[in-house]
Design goal:
Length: 288
């Protein structure tokens, strides 16, 4: 009989912990949840010291409904192994009676919650990035462009900032009105507009501009660095919106990188190891 021998792992190197369904607040009587990926050492604070790490706040696309927390967690684990803390965030659903700006208020509240609990979760509160996909990327862009804007600040954790230090956007609606026009034949399109924008159609245009990152860039204002991705075969959000946003930020003197993903549709075949590696390099350049 041959018994092989392996060395133990006294530093817990490479091990990742998932902290599920953390309640970060409540709005309209509805609990708001996030999940956190941290190093395994963070589970044993008396035996191990986990040095503070940059934070990635991830918002999954959901057509402005409640996002699925676990959608990207298998892929996001690699960022914890690369030295980050990752939090995936849910927000209220527009189709359940929570129109704009509910989703934006919630994501900002989650950021302030995470800064409030930075020590508990081994977060460096001075190094916070936000990363979103589709409607989650719309939220991420708006967070990057409206840091600490009083219009979107609720009572929770008001002593903390909701501004971020880097933004990653994957196939975001940059012009909400044109996105709805592009999707006009999709079943439920009009219902979603009523849920998201309200029953007064005369106000839709103004609300859509408030929701559109393209129209929220203020001349001469400094913003965090942006990394933009979009597939040029996207059937949900027009690829051209990314190019327009790239030019708007560049013309304003802001730091922005953009990538066209050749032949990629919305989600689906968009993702690849190259995307994740490009995101990591961008964040490493900002934080390490």
């Amino acid at each position: 009989m041959t018994i092989h021998e392996l060395a133990n792992n006294p530093t817990l190197s490479g091990q990742v912990r998932l902290i599920e369904n953390v309640v970060y607040g409540a709005m309209d009587g509805e609990a708001l949840h996030l999940s956190i990926l941290t190093p395994w050492t963070q589970r044993f604070p008396k035996q191990y010291q986990t040095e503070p790490r940059p934070l990635i706040v991830f918002v999954q696309g959901s057509s402005w409904r409640t996002p699925t927390l676990g959608e990207e967690i298998p892929q996001l684990v690699q960022f914890v192994k690369a030295g980050y803390i990752v939090a995936t965030v849910q927000h209220r659903s527009s189709i359940e009676g929570h129109p704009f700006p509910a989703f934006l208020q919630d994501v900002k509240t989650a950021i302030r919650f995470l800064r409030t609990n930075a020590k508990k979760y081994a977060i460096d509160p001075q190094k916070v990035a936000i990363w979103g996909t589709s409607s989650g990327a719309n939220a991420a862009m708006l967070v990057g462009l409206t840091g600490d804007d009083p219009r979107y600040k609720v009572d929770l954790y008001q002593d903390q900032s909701d501004a971020v230090d880097a933004v990653v956007s994957c196939f975001a609606p940059m012009d909400v009105e044109k996105t709805f026009e592009y999707d006009s034949n999709v079943p439920g399109n009009k219902l979603l507009q009523y849920c998201l924008l309200g029953s007064d159609v005369s106000k839709w245009s103004e609300i859509e501009k408030q929701m559109s990152p393209l129209y929220q860039v203020k001349d001469g204002q400094n913003y965090p660095p942006f990394l933009l991705f979009h597939g040029d075969a996207d059937k949900v959000v027009p690829y051209e919106q990314m190019e327009e946003m790239y030019m708007r930020l560049q013309d304003n003197g802001n730091s922005v990188e953009a990538y066209r993903v050749k032949g990629a549709n919305h989600e689906r075949d968009f993702w690849s190891p190259t995307i994740y590696n490009t995101v990591q390099k961008f964040l490493d350049d900002q934080f390490k």
